Amino acid sequence: MRLKTYRVTTMPEAMALIKRDLGDDALILNTKKVKTGGLFGLFRKDCLEVTAAAETAEQSALKAVAPAKAQATVAEVPEAKEQENDALMEELQSLKRLMMHEGPEDRLPEPLRPLRSLLEKQGVEQTVQTELLSKLLKASENEAPVQEAFHAELIRFIEQHQQAIKNESPSIACFIGPTGVGKTTTIAKVAAEQLLEHKRTVGLITADTYRIAAVAQLKTYGEILDVPVEVVESREQLAGALDALKDCDVILIDTAGRNYQQAEYIQDLQRLLPETQHIYTTLVLSLTAKYEDMVQIIGNFEALSIDELLLTKKDETASAGVILNLLHRYRIPLRRIATGQNVPDDLVAATPGRIADYIAGELRHA
């Protein structure tokens, strides 16, 4: 079963997209009004969120061969085909009930109800909830502990949606993102990681001349790590700094944390980065931010090439469901998660097992 969610202005717009992506036989599972965009909660726009489902290619193939089989087994095949169609419709209806939470509570098996509550508490989108819970419906029928099955299904989901890193160790990396997400501290952690674990020489560049203490902060880290630090304000100065640090194995670039809901700040970054040289770009976002704000920030950065996501402030929130939402929605690799302020310790790999533990660890070990 294929599931897809759209955010549109009108229902006819949704129908056109569903027909294009899923075909004429797709079934609409859920529609609801949501608000998107805006600034500080103001000027948000109403839109429709529509979720639809369609058969997989394998299911369609089974239907396609049914007419041929019918010629040989006239009496048996119609009944089998009817059972197949009934099973398909029941699967679709089960998915719809899970998505919309319709009907009596006992429609969802008792062992799965705490899991649905946990996913809702963690801020996991309805589409992702449905995909996970529908897989667990069969698991709830056997004797395996549901918590273990849930953890295993989370890992499977993450492995399926997590994109592979194209370049494990880029020689020049630029860190971008909104204010307050901890870019400068994160850069210090990455620099220490490269120095201590990978034995690479590192150079630092800061273009964050907007904050009074930003340059001093990175220079302090540079002194502690004994690495050179360059300060730039323009593309020309950046080219000069890259040339000055050309003997370093790795060069990490810090940028100003600004309100990237405003287009002019994206343009400032475009004017800073060279046009003829691709610099590996890491978008830094905080796990304490609202998922809707993350979506808007990522959308605004589409003008730039985002090679990787890095999520910070895991230590400041008990919720990690947004990670599943991001992996499901975007084809942007996630390699690291920052779990605190300590340099260099609080930077960990975003492995499927670790992310699953963030979401279901307490439930699993209860």
From TrEMBL:
Residues 169-316 form the AAA+ ATPase domain. It comes from the Bacteria. SMART domains: AAA, SRP54. One of its GO terms (molecular function) is GTPase activity. InterPro entries: AAA+_ATPase (IPR003593), FlhF (IPR020006), FlhF__GTPase_dom (IPR047040), P-loop_NTPase (IPR027417), SRP54_GTPase_dom (IPR000897). Its main location: membrane. GO terms for cellular component: plasma membrane. CDD domains: FlhF. Keywords: Bacterial flagellum biogenesis, Bacterial flagellum protein export, Cell membrane, Cell projection, Cilium, Flagellum, GTP-binding, Membrane, Nucleotide-binding, Protein transport, Transport. Residues 170-361 form the SRP54-type proteins GTP-binding domain. It is found in: Cell membrane. It is a peripheral membrane protein. One of its GO terms (biological process) is SRP-dependent cotranslational protein targeting to membrane. SUPFAM superfamilies: P-loop containing nucleoside triphosphate hydrolases. Necessary for flagellar biosynthesis. May be involved in translocation of the flagellum. Belongs to the GTP-binding SRP family. This is Flagellar biosynthesis protein FlhF.
